[in-house]
Every structure is written in C-alpha cells, then in structure tokens.
C-alpha cells in the first residue's frame, strides 16, 4: 500500500500537467478573486458584482474569498487533474505495466486516491497562501485592516476546501475509469461543470420546483452552498446558499464516498485490455 | 510444481471466442515457446495468466496458485507501456515501488538490457527498440523465477534481437522459467526447449522443437516419377506419398529407407536420391495452423 502511494506520488509530482494546473488555478484565483475585484473597487466602477467592494479582498475575508472558486472553475481544474491522473493509465496502456508488477487493483487505486487527496490539500493550501499574500498586499496598498480570520475559521475553511477539491478530483478519476481514457472524460466532466450545472441552477430550477429541490442533492450546488456558508461571495458562479453548511457538507461527502466506491468497483470488475 | 498450468481455459467476448478449452503447462526451468499466428489468442491467454483478464471458464495456476499473487513473476505484455514524461530510470523507479523492489535493482536491469546510457532520457524520446528493452527491464525488476514475455523482440534491430535471445537463453540457463510468445518461428526454434502451437484459440500441438521437426519422412528423387509414386502408394498407402517439385515426399520412418530403396530398384525404378526429410518448424506451423494470419 505504501509502495503504491509512493509510486503514484512520484508519477504525479513529476508530471508537468500537475504543475501547469496548479499554476492556472493560482493565476485564475488571483485574477478573479483579487485583481479584478480590487481594480473594480478602486476605479469606482458600478456593475452587477461591484457590491463585493474592497472588503472582500482584505485579509479578514481570505477564507470565503478563496473558497469561492471551488464550485465551478477551480473544481473544473481539479476534475481535469483527476481525469488525467487515472484516465492516462488507459491512454498509455500502462495499467498492465503497473499491475504485472504485483499490486492488486485495490492497492493501486488506494494509492491513486490517496495521492489525489493529498494533492487536493496542496491545491487548497496553495490557493489560501496566494489569497493571503494578495490580501496583505491590498491591505498594505490601501492602508486597510490587517485582521485575519480566527484559526478555527481558517482550519474549517481548509477542511471544506479540501473536501470539495477531493470530491472533484474523484469525480474526474471515476470519469477516467468509466470512460477508459482522457479525452471523453475531460470533455464530459467540463460540460457537466461549466454547462449542465449552470443550466440546472439558472434555467431549470427557477422554472420547475422539483428541479429546484433536486439540485440540492447534486455535487455542484452542494459545494456552492458549503462555501457560501463559509463566506464565499454570492454572485460568484456556483456559489448559492441553497442549504446550510451541515447538509451541504453531507452532500459533498456523500459524493466523495460514492465516486471512490464506484471507481473501485468498476476497476476491479473490468478486464484490463 | 509446474510454474504455469492452464486447464480448459476459455475466454469469450460476446460471440467471439478468443481462447477455447486451452490446456497448457510450462515446466520449471524450461524456455517455452507459445507460438501462433496473429489473433490466435496468445496475448489473451497471457493476460489471463497474469490476472488482467478474467477467464470465461477454466482455471489458471501460477506456481500452484490462482492469478493475483505475482511475486516472482515478471511480464511484458503486448508491447511496452510507460509514462512518456518520465525518464527510463524514473519509470523503473515507479515500478520498483509497486513491486517493493530496492532501487539498486534498477541499475542491474538497465545494464542487462543495455540501456544504462539512455536511462536519464525521457521515455517519449526512445526508439521502438529501446522501449521494448525497457519493457524487458521492467519484467526483470523482481528477478523473477517465471518470466512471461509477449513478442519480446518486436521492434528490435537484428543485433538487438540477437542480444534479446541471448539474454533469454541466459535466464533459462540460470534456472528461470521463461514463457515466450512469438510468431517468429526462427526465434522460437533457437531459444525454446518446448513449443506449444495455438490456432483459433486452441492448442493444436505441444512438443519439443526437435520432436516436432522429426515427425518427418523420406525425400526420394526417382524416375519415372509417376511409376515411383504409384509403387510407393501401393507399398505404403495413398496418403503417405505426395509429389513435390518433381520428387516424392514420403511419410514413413526414415529407418525403412534401405528397404524402400531396394523394393523400388527391384521394381525397375531408378532412384537418384534418397534422404531423410526433416521438416522445419515453419512447415509444422503452417500445417497445424492452416497458414492462417489475423484469423479473428
């Protein structure tokens, strides 16, 4: 088990795509959570999202502000990471190379899921660090308050971010297993993240009450409600307080368990061709 | 205990039967050639041996145990598959971690396949032959007692093929059991102790190379050839004689050569040549497989 974890860690850490995705996540996070809101606030423009103001970008709000990306765009990047990490084994035909070294399929999958969970935590911490640096720079520039959230709030935010990020990587991983590859899995994963979720919440839910109820059981709205309960700015795509933090946590955790179980069952049952 | 045993092994993909009631046993310490045309079911059989594919029915035992425990088993199946962004050495490091093998073994296997000089380069930059050698290096990581190699000389140049054969012979001589699948008859003839020939998913023959080739007869040049053929058919039966390229191929024990020669001379037939006809493996192979290729 430890050997498989170490093997997967070596593969993921040496893969350029991992660092590229992290770089994109940090760049987009900085751009949309700090640079654009700051420029908007300081230039005095008015618009649909102008109500966020400067306060959202200050150190007191780093938890909510950095969590705001997880329901959609950071989530999409993490889905891509999960697909690449697991679906790539099909694309390169490397499952047979790995499995003929002796580990069971379950052992390999535990290693993979463990490394994806660890990497998700790394993403969350890196984005929080980026948010901290950005908010401090803004506070210094604007001579604003340097008050940070409590340690409890920070740890709770990290935990929520980690849960959501891991759930999305597992979603990507299970797509890679079900579709035995990368291309279709990435495509369908992104269609779900960027189109279907929005269509459900913006188009279908307002029209049909049962859709409005049912969407509370979906992973995206669950993640959106969880980050909203921790202070993520509403108006950010996917962030909506459809339910409280407790039920939202349960929804996201249930999907995490479901994706892990589904991936394990399918990989164990199928032939490696 | 025999390292590899298959009993009534069958694999169906819907209506397509890839392997049918295959019985196979590989003895400890031998180099066994698993020979068959493309699509005959060789790779599917090897995948079932390694637990990558579940048999529809039948049984597989590796060292007396069902597939799953691959300790002491090394394998290269259907071409090398590695991570293109990693170097050859890092690919082996990854696999050594899965296998629970010390990293020091990596240098040993790289040296065995003559890849030490390129070990730091990315796998994506390797030639086909180098990729194949890395695949064999990975199969050797565990210093296996049983080595299963699927077409191991694919993509190698003549020198590389000779090196690979020499390596396999060395492993066999050192006591390893080697199961090698191939469609290259010369290769199998040179390095294998025993051969199993598979066609349309079934084992159609299994024997030593020498015995397969010795199921022979006599080659007789005689005149008039039609009279000679008629006389021998009378003597040995119609199915024992065929006219090939103006001479006679006769299915009969070579020990009867003198007796047959005498009878033909007494019958007024001029015999200009009479020799033992030893079939080559290609001839045996084509007879047993019906000369098929890509049969499924």
Approximate strand percentage of chain B: 25-35%
Helix percent of chain B reads 25-40%
Q: What's the tally of helices of chain A? A: 11
Write down the overall geometry of chain A: globular
Number of strands of chain A: 0
Low-confidence stretches of chain B: none
* Biggest beta-sheet profile of chain B: 6 strands, mixed
Distance between the termini of chain A: 24 Å
Outline type of chain B = elongated
Low-pLDDT stretches of chain A: none
Q: Cα-atom Rg of chain B, whole angstroms?
A: 23 Å
The run of helices and strands of chain A is HHHHHHHHHHH
Lateral strand order in the biggest sheet of chain B: 5-6-7-3-8-9
The SSE string of chain B, one letter per element, is: EEEHEEHHHEHEHEEHEHEEHEH
Biggest interface goes to: A-B, 27 and 37 residues
Helix content of chain A: over 70%
> How many strands, what sense, and barrel or not for the largest sheet of chain A?
none
Report the oligomer.
heterodimer
Quickly give the structural class of chain B.
alpha/beta
User: Structural class of the helix and strand makeup of chain A?
Assistant: mainly alpha
From the N-terminal CA to the C-terminal CA of chain B, the straight-line distance is: 34 Å
Describe, in plain words, how this protein is organized in 3D.
The complex is a heterodimer of chains A (273) and B (296). By secondary structure, chain A is mostly helical. Helix content of chain A is 75%, strand content 0%. Chain A contains eleven helices and no strands. In chain A, helix 2 packs parallel to helix 6, helix 7 packs parallel to helix 11 and helix 10 runs antiparallel to helix 11. Chain A is globular, with a radius of gyration of 19 Å. With 296 residues, chain B is α/β, with parallel strands linked by helices. Chain B has ten helices and 13 strands. In chain B, strand 1 and strand 2 form a beta hairpin. In chain B, helix 2 packs across helix 3 and helix 3 packs across helix 4. At the A-B interface, helix 1 and helix 5 of A face strand 5, helix 2 and helix 4 of B.
């Amino acid at each position: 088990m430890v050997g498989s974890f170490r093997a997967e860690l070596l593969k993921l850490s040496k893969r350029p795509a991992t660092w590229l995705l992290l770089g994109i996540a940090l760049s987009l996070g900085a751009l949309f959570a700090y640079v654009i809101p700051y420029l908007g606030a300081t230039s005095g423009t008015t618009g649909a999202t102008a109500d966020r103001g400067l306060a959202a970008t200050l150190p007191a709000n780093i938890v909510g502000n950095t969590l705001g990306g997880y329901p959609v765009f950071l989530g999409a990047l993490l889905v891509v990471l999960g697909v690449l990490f697991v679906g790539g084994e099909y694309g390169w035909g490397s499952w047979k190379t790995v499995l003929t070294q002796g580990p069971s399929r379950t052992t390999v999958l535990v290693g993979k899921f463990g490394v994806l969970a660890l990497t998700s935590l790394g993403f969350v911490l890196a984005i929080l660090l980026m948010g901290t640096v950005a908010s401090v720079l803004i506070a210094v520039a604007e001579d604003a308050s340097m008050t940070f959230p409590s340690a409890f709030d920070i740890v709770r935010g990290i935990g929520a971010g980690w849960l959501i990020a891991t759930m999305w990587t597992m979603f990507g991983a299970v797509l890679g297993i079900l579709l035995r590859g990368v291309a279709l899995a990435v495509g369908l994963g992104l269609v779900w993240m960027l189109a279907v979720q929005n269509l459900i919440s913006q188009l279908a839910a307002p029209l049909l009450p049962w859709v409005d109820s049912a969407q509370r059981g979906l992973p995206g709205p669950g993640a959106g409600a969880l980050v909203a309960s921790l202070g993520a700015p509403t108006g950010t795509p996917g962030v909506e307080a459809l339910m409280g933090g407790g039920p939202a946590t349960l929804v996201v955790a249930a999907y995490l368990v479901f994706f892990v179980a589904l991936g394990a069952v399918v990989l164990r049952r199928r032939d490696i061709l | 205990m025999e390292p590899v045993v298959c009993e009534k092994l069958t694999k169906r993909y819907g209506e397509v039967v890839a392997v049918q009631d295959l019985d196979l046993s590989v003895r400890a310490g031998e180099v066994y050639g698993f020979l068959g045309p493309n699509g005959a079911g060789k790779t599917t059989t090897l995948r079932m041996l390694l637990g990558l594919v579940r048999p529809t029915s039948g049984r597989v035992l590796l060292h007396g145990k069902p597939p799953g425990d691959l300790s002491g088993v090394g394998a290269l199946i259907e071409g090398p598959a590695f991570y293109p962004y990693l170097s050859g050495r890092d690919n082996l490091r990854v696999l050594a971690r899965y296998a629970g093998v010390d990293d020091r073994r990596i240098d040993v296997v790289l040296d065995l396949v003559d890849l030490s000089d390129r070990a730091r380069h990315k796998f994506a930059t390797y030639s086909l032959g180098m990729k194949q050698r890395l695949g064999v290096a990975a199969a050797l990581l565990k210093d296996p007692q049983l080595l299963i190699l699927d077409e191991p000389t694919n993509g190698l140049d003549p020198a590389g093929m000779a090196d690979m054969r020499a390596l396999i012979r060395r492993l066999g001589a050192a006591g390893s059991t080697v199961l090698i699948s191939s469609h290259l008859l010369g290769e199998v003839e040179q390095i294998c102790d025993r051969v199993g020939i598979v066609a349309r998913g079934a084992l159609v023959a299994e024997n030593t190379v020498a015995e397969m080739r010795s199921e022979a007869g006599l080659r007789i040049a005689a005149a008039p050839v039609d009279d000679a053929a008629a006389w021998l058919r009378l003597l040995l039966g119609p199915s024992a004689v065929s006219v090939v390229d103006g001479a006679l191929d006769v299915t009969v024990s070579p020990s009867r050569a003198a007796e047959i020669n005498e009878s033909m001379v007494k019958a007024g037939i001029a015999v200009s040549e009479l020799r033992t006809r030893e079939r080559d493996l290609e001839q045996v192979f084509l007879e047993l497989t019906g000369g098929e290729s890509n049969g499924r």
